[in-house]
From TrEMBL:
Domain of life, source organism: Eukaryota
Catalytic reaction list: holo-[ACP] + malonyl-CoA = malonyl-[ACP] + CoA
Species lineage: Eukaryota, Metazoa, Chordata, Craniata, Vertebrata
Protein name as catalogued: Fatty acid synthase
Involved pathway(s): Lipid metabolism; fatty acid biosynthesis
One GO molecular-function entry: fatty acid synthase activity
Amino acid sequence: LWYICSGMGTQWAGMGRSLMQLPEFRESIQRSDVALKETGLCVSRLLMDADESTFEDTVHAFVGLAAIQVAQIDMLQKMGLQPDGIVGHSVGELACGYADGSLSHSEAVLAAYWRGRCIKEANLPPGGMAAVGLTWEECKAQCPQGVVPACHNAEDTVTISGPQDSVSKFVAQLKENSVFAKEVRSAGVAFHSYYMASIAPALLSALQKVIKSPRPRSARWISTSIN
């Protein structure tokens, strides 16, 4: 049994809403509410009242994705299931940390909150991301100035990241050449790009307050961000 935890781009208005009918899921979301109480963010209300614009907010998207996946892990654990392997991408690695026992429930959702808040407060230039049907080497050769290959998803699939206008133009160009290209919902942020360097000090400071005693990951968690 493997747990595969997803990152930004998978959020949608209404996600988690039907699952709130399940007691185990709802109780986990309510624990996230408690963990986030001092931030003023209520996950249960976020999920139940979401509209099409709700998850365009970076904080809402990160917290929603993290809390839902933590709740799903809690449900599976109550069913007696434990993963043999864990893998995730981007903010999904916070859920991996929880599934692996490296992060507590509150650490996972608070880390998601502060990641989103630090990015939001940085007032970064408008950014975009897109999945493209190119190899990593092809991406490096073809990406226009400012656009970089950000995530090596598969041998012939890469996520690119950079200024919104440049990403959109490159996507249109690839489509004209019959190459798969689709923009990713990234809340106007160029994640996994050089833009992120500017938030690193603030994010590290916030995470050190939230995760006071870091615990190493086990061998079953295959990280997609470090070797």
